[in-house]
Amino acid sequence: MGCGCAKATAVQPEHQAANTRTVHVGSAFKGRPSLAELRKLNEPGPDEQYGAEKKAFGSDQVSGRGLRSGASCLQVLEKRSVLVAVRARPPNEREKAAASAECLSFEAETGIVLHRDEDRDHRFAFDCIMRQTTGQREVYDRTARPLLHKVLEGYNGCLFAYGQTGSGKTFTMQGAAGEEGIIPTLCTELFREIQEAAEQRHITVVCSVLEIYNEKVKDLAADAAGEDLAIREDGSQGGRGIHVEGLKEIQVRSCEEVLDCITKAQLKRSVGKTNMNEHSSRSHSVVTLRIGACDCDDVDAATLTVSKLHLIDLAGSERQKTTGASGDRLKEGAQINLSLSALGNVINALTEKSGGGRHVPYRDSKLTRLLQDSLGGNSYTAIICNISPAKINAEETLSSLRFAERAKKIENKAVVNRDPKGERILELMQENKALRAKVARLEAHVDRSLALTALRSQNWESPHARALGRELESKLNGDLFPSVRFAEVDCARDKVLCNQEHATRSGVNGRRASAYMLPSPSP
């Protein structure tokens, strides 16, 4: 499925990078295995050889190793509900200019060693390690692809990139021209799956984009972003859980529509320049896709699910002495650090082995409140910890790795999300189907009874009439009271109309099950 990039004009210089980061994916997935085939790829086989290291994140050619690792990561995700990956970027120009030595080495597929001091190494093991030469496609296959698999089954999902400023989070999530990141690649695959499953499943998607800037939630998809929106919790059965009140949601029918929405939203995102990053994100960016799915049009066998997927590019942790921030940048950095500190506190609370009811400080920041379902709640969650390989950043890298190590201990409780209103609508549809069949039977019965009455009034004037009368008597089995059957027909018809009216009051339009899956998007 091709995607054409919408070019924005009159963009402020500091937003130019943000505009080009969100790019559209070409026909990259043509001929690639479907998500259903992902499990079959977890078989041993020779790794493909990679080319020379590129200046960026390496080759984007389809990798058999990436797909096999993706199958393995899917197994981890299904077992623990939380997947933690680490991605090391290549040295950047600043680190090269400082002639900084590299401080990382790797052990097999899951081990990483930080050489902080000459006489001390720090060893870590994670679900997935992605080295400097790992390409964008393999990153997607090993982290986001297993998550999308679960979301399409009706589970909630969350993927976020964590790390110090300038560590490659935005590149990982959004990418650059020719090196598409997780968000555009996932959107391409999502709509490819929707298209391929069109005959068996009806799927609808709505998209929203927000940022958390200086502890204010701003709707980047709204015409006038700026109002601080409230985060609410709907704890009712089948409710929306944690959500942002008044957030604009846009129904999207293609990859192009999603990425056009994101591209326009990114122009409003708060960015600024620091010593560590020419285009440093000064806010947490959250793209949310809500996906409604109905298995089939056969109302007797249909099931309805409503899931949500958060794709989050966190602002980077900062140290003033390295970023050189001052004024507004310094204030922003302080708020970012407080928010990330609150995130660390939540993870610490979730992983502490304490008896009795434990307090998890979700309400200490807007970020942790929004992530409440994703951390310790009803969600499958993938965390990508982005790190620098340079020794001058070893202290920040160690902090990021320790964060990721703690996050591995989180235990979520993901369940398939059924839509109670949708299930009730299905019940009404099933009842109406049975009632319509009953009406058809009763109408046929009444017609026969009336015909028999007419024949008797003619005193069976011909042999043909007598034969027809005997046939009708046999089918009616002695029931000669059409007025009673008329009453049953009227009753069944009234019930059908009542069910349809109930569905209309519930905000349902149309008869296809796919219309019952999501509330109408915001205007």
UniProtKB/TrEMBL annotation:
Pfam families: Kinesin. Transmembrane segments: none annotated. Belongs to the TRAFAC class myosin-kinesin ATPase superfamily. Kinesin family. This is Kinesin-like protein. ATP binds at G163, Q164, T165, G166, S167, G168, K169, T170. One of its GO terms (cellular component) is microtubule associated complex. GO terms for molecular function: ATP binding; microtubule binding; microtubule motor activity. Keywords: ATP-binding, Microtubule, Motor protein, Nucleotide-binding. GO terms for biological process: microtubule-based movement; mitotic spindle organization; spindle elongation.
